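Subject: Interface between my chains keeps coming out wrong

I've been trying for a while to get a sensible model of this assembly. When I model each chain on its own everything looks fine, but I need the whole thing in one frame so I can look at the contacts. Pasting all components below, labels as-is. Any help appreciated, I'm running out of ideas.
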Amino acid sequence: MEKHFLVLLILSIMLSLTITAFAALGENRLDVYISVFTIEYLVLAEIFRPRRKFLSFSGLDFLSLGLFIIFSFIVARKVIEILAK
Amino acid sequence: MNRLNTLGLGLIVVGAIVTPFCYFIIYSIPLTVLGMALAIIGIVMLLTPQHLIPHQVVKALIAGSINNIEAILEEFNASHKAIYLSSREGRVYAYVPLTINPGLPTSIEIKKAPRRLITYVNESPGLIIYPPGSEVVRLAGLSEPSDSESALYNIEGNLSYVLLDFAELVSGIRVNILKPQFIEPDKESETESKKVLKSARLQLQLKGVKFQSEAPRFTRILGSLPLSLAACVAAATTQRPVKILNESRQKRKITALLEIGE
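Reply #2:
Try treating it as a single job with all components included. I did that and got this:
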């Protein structure tokens, strides 16, 4: 199977399993889901290194860059909350 | 718009509707993230490139290039294995000796010879051929090594990048560096402080080869296409002459031994 479609298939399975497992555990924090989605996508992109139509200035595709920025924002917010306590 | 892009766009639209609806109206986080997951998959589908040129056409173009070289090799009745060399402009070329009498020229002598189809090195005729892999290596933009020792150990990374990720000619690669020999630096010299690669052998295993050509002389002299590309990468990485010593093929697996240097 071509690697681009393998990435799509594995990503779909991983996202579905993540949502199912976390929902079953009663997880209601949005940032937890987004963080796990980000890690899953970045790990898959790094393992399979699929070609992308468009790349940003940093060499990452736009989805990787966007998810990474959101992930950094979530981590920064958590750190600020901890420091503020 | 092709089907994958249409499906991707559809998923993004569904995700964009479901996510705010579930977050602001239904107040359900799992359904919200389900919408986001659909949007992510839709974006991945949109980012996946389609074949700009049908891959059968690309294969036919490559086969045409190989057939051209095969015809040249047949015309000159070439039978000795090629030596891959890297030029100063960053382009790899192959020197095919037409005779080995009285002996094979050294790489320094070959590099000094004029770069024409038929060239004479020490009055022995040979062919200068640009294999299909030379352009691929130039396009891949491999970084120049700082010294020959690190260049040798960079070969595996460069081979994986070019053959697996860039050209996607194989689905797996294994590299073993055998018998590396270095020239120790002259301790009294102030300029030469690093070891210089003298020679080494590379044992390659290429798995899941995706291209097969029917060009026996090309394969015998320059190696099969993935192996020829590997030799180009090795020559470009180490800046040393590379020769394919032997090659064996089993279905979609190639095992080969390359010699670097001398």
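Reply #3:
Confirming on my end. Chain B touches chain A through 19 residues (CB under 8 Å).
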